[in-house]
Amino acid sequence: MNPAGIRSLIKILYKNTQMMLPKRTLYRVLAAVAVFGILFPCGVVVGFCCFVMTEALILAGNPGGGMLFAMQILSVFSMVFGTWVIFSVLFFSSDREHFVTLPIPAHHLMMAKFIYAYIAESLMECFMLAAVFIGYFIAMAEEAGWAAALDPISVIAAISGTLLIPLVPMVYCTVFSLVLMAFLKNVRSRKVFDQVSTALLVAFVALFLVSIKGIGEINVETYVEILGSGGDLFLRTLNLLFFPVPWLSEAVGRGSVGYLAAYLGTNAGLVLILYCAGKLWYQEGLYTAAALGSVKKAETHYERIRRYTPFVACLKKEIHVLLRTKAFANNCVYVNLIWPAGAFLLLHFTKEQGNMAEFIRLYRMGKERAGFLLTLVMIAIAFIATAMNSIASTAFTREGQHLSLLKYIPVSYRTQIRAKAAVSLLFTYPVLLLTDGIVCYYMGATARTGLFFAVLMLAAHVLSIAIGMRLDSTAPYVTWDDEYSALRGNINTFFNMAVMMIAVVIVGGIGYWLYEFLKLPMGIYHIVLFIVLMGTSVGVALIASDEIVENISKME
Fold first, then answer.
1. Shared-domain flag, residues 223 and 246
2. Residue pair 555/476 in contact by the 8 Å Cβ criterion
3. 491-512 vs 522-554: helix axis angle to the nearest 10?
4. What is the distance between the alpha carbons of residues 392 and 92, in angstroms, rounded to a whole number?
5. How far is CA 364 from CA 93, 322, 441, in A?
6. Which of 23, 91, 107, 466 has the fewest CB neighbours in a 10 Å radius?
7. Residue 216: what pLDDT?
């Protein structure tokens, strides 16, 4: 192995697949807001959950159970979402043709791509893992004191886990992709590879559902009891699949040098296996990938030419790009389904117990504070859902190297802008309406209230679209090598989320001021909130449209 050569390749990959932060004060402010408004709150939530589970499991005699469960869940996420990323980075990125002509051993290129993908995909997960360990140590310190909780070996093991937990699932994904590409030479469709991550997700969800079947009432307390007794089928299966993770849990919990050495040694051994597998099969996989590309061209079917209006033609193009590209379909379109699914699972399983049951009871009794909070929650969902799917904030980035065509095709700029906004509306707003319906059903809200929420969510959705497209038109990221790089490397998506977090705080602050200080009746409060949100949405959309037209005219 040539570490220096691999490091050089990693630097090249990073430079070619990451968008640099524009040197503008606004972008630096947005970067700070994104870090402190998104990453840290998420970390606090994850750490608090681990803290609560650890406290409960201390009484059950299994204090490390919550930490172990969190680590294994994050391993599952790495396995599911890393599968297609690895396929894409190793075999289907556009830089493949450039690298294979250079005097670089194929397996060195593979290791560089693997390390790059590992770093790019694990940054957020490492942050969450750090929060998990902090929550665990705080809970243990309350039980046994800081001196006992912060054993040096335990701290070293926690730091190792923060950096290395995603390694095992990513190695699994990479070896699997190498074997599949090398041995399925007769496969002439990328659909086989596209469907692998979906199959893994379905398998893990099915396993989880089987594990909770028959445990009685499903709630946090019941599941903590199951974890404490060690009877959870889902966790036991994950402990077998990601077998080094329980050793890390023991190293952190006991301060055991032996378990830490076993964990680190196993990770090193898996990386060595990956290196050997790359030496054996990566070159064969590249041949298979090249054959897929040529067959794809040979099998192209030409549809009968039809006439469309310029707007419809542009809209169809946007829809095809989003649906026919696996990365865009998963991360921009299908990701929207988590909102109705999450609303259903949260309300269905907690409607009769805990704080949620109390909130529903207060809302159905007509308590104004409950209605005020629910209104703000629905608006926040619309803001965050639109920013999270990144359809608007990658509107121009998705054009890639063909961005300049926007200036030269015989379609007006505003028509193209409307098509890019419409595709976000098409794939996001119906899901928001479904979420609205589910929430109103379980909360016992009237149809009029549901319609009012739908209007407010539409205004928030349009505002988020306008801001996302405005950000992306200012500094589009067009030098990406594959679609996953277009999503991962585009900081406009991150900044759009930051702006939406600010919008949620502002709307919440205005709502709180109207309700708590001005003491407006609920009906007047709703009217004022509607006027403010709708007026802001329309005004920003009109201003953003003019600015986007100007930005397109400046594109090279």
1. yes
2. yes
3. 160
4. 25
5. 53, 41, 11
6. 23
7. 46
Does 247 lie in the same domain as 316?
no
Rounded to 10 degrees, the C-alpha dihedral 123/127/133/136 comes to -140
For the stretch 372-408, pLDDT in tens is 889 989 998 999 899 888 899 889 988 887 777 788 7
Apex 404 CA angle, 293 and 423, nearest 5: 75
**DSSP code of 411?**
S
**How many Å apart are CA 541 and CA 326, to the nearest integer?**
30
Helices (H), 18-39: 25-34
Whether 83 shows a pLDDT value over 80: the answer reads: no
Which residue, among 456, 487, 441, has the nearest Cα to 380 in the 3D structure?
456
DSSP 22: P
Same-domain status, 175 and 287: yes
256 near 156, Cβ under 8 Å?
A: no
Count the Cβ atoms, other than its own, within 10 Å of residue 216.
Answer: 8
Q: Are residues 288 and 432 in the same domain?
A: no
**DSSP-based three-state secondary structure for 365:** coil
Task: Determine the straight-line distance between the first and last CA of the chain, rounded to whole angstroms.
Answer: 42
Q: Which residue type occupies 165? A: I
Pick 15 or 541 by higher pLDDT: 541
- Upper half-sphere CA count for residue 553 (Cβ side, 13 Å): 8
In residues, how long is the chain?
Answer: 556
Q: Print the domain residue range for 11.
A: 3-16+64-130+145-297
Do both 107 and 74 map to the same domain? yes
The reported pTM is 0.72
My answer on whether 222 and 314 are in the same domain is: no
Q: Where are the alpha helices (DSSP H) in 213-305?
A: 220-229, 233-241, 244-254, 257-298
Tokens encoding 123: 């940054």
Residue 374 to residue 440: CA distance in whole angstroms: 10
The last residue of one of the domains, among 266, 297, 328, is 297
Classified as helix, coil or strand, 394 is: coil
Q: Which two tokens mark 306?
A: 């039809």
CA dist 166 → 109, 120, 329 (Å): 21, 11, 24
| Chain position carrying tokens 């898996």 | 270
Domain total for the chain?
A: 2
Convert the pLDDT of each residue in 506-532 to its tens digit: 888 887 787 777 777 878 888 888 898
SS3 content of the chain, % helix, strand, coil (to 5): 80, 0, 20
CA 264 – CA 258 distance, rounded (Å): 10
Using alpha carbons, select from 547, 405, 403 the residue that is nearest to residue 470. 547
Count helices and strands (H / E) in the chain. Answer: 25, 0
Classify 364 as helix, strand or coil: helix
- Domain end (from 297, 320, 346): 297
Other Cβ atoms within 10 Å of 519 Cβ, number: 9
Burial bucket for residue 528 (CB in 10 Å: 0-12, 13-18, 19+): middle
171, 274 Cβ separation under 8 angstroms = yes
> What single letter denotes the amino acid at residue 431?
V
